[in-house]
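Office hours follow-up: a student asked to see two folded examples consecutively, so here they are.
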Amino acid sequence: MNANRAWYVFAACNILLLALTAMVNDWLGGWGLSLFLAGPCVVWPALRLGPGWLIPCLMLSGLAGDAALPTPPGFLMCLFVAGALGVQALFPQAARWQRSQQISLAWVLNGLYFFAFTIWAMAENHAGGRVFFERVAADFCLSQIIVLLVASWHFDFQASVLGLVGSTAGPHRAGAGY
């Protein structure tokens, strides 16, 4: 199995992470909290797939995430694709990074995605005020802490599933195409 099938594995793992996050958010809603775990969904596909397989993978993953968030269709999908292409362009050697550096990249991407989501929520709902920003700060802090814990698990899960299906999807090299 090569990268043209590995994108299915990455998409399925991402959809599972986003579905689990939605279930946890349903439970956390009673306390007025929520998690945002989009950053880990982008890192491994960006490091292991060429743009030809990366874009469909993240489009599918992003649309699944859009179904769980109160955003317009395609919002998270566009963030995923832009973030992954940015990772490939800015960090061509990132596929050789240590796990801690990959987790840090997921953490940074999650913060950027959270910021974009917050800007959209403010514009859409004309939100503001102290209560809104207290909720945003609490959600941001909780999400960023949980990303540090979940990212390593998610990367290991993706590697395990790739191994189970016999994939040899290795690090993506800039200019390698598909």
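And the second, which I mentioned at the end of office hours:
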Amino acid sequence: MANTMTQVKFTIEADIVAAFKARCESEGVSMASVIRRWMAAGQPARAPTAKADTRPHRRKTVAELTGVLETVLQKEDEYRAAIPEAFQSRLEAADWACGQLETAIDCLQNAF
């Protein structure tokens, strides 16, 4: 079997690289040898898909988030109803907040 060389590039956060390099130096091994052994061990190139990354799970999460926003909207409506008409700036701010919450809820409901 012929020896071949392949160059591999990783994009990793600098602090992780520094910790990996320090650990390799303290163990007296090269970073390349550690990576080579890891790759030879048959580790998957990608992590397996987690349950949290499934479409039904995302739908459930969006539904839960929509429920939370609807609760916040209900509370904001109650707050707005309790504001005296003399406080026009507060009424406008509450109206704007309710409008934004309604828009967010509509967007989430239309996402799936």
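Two things to take away from it. The mean pLDDT is 80. Residues 51-111 form one domain.
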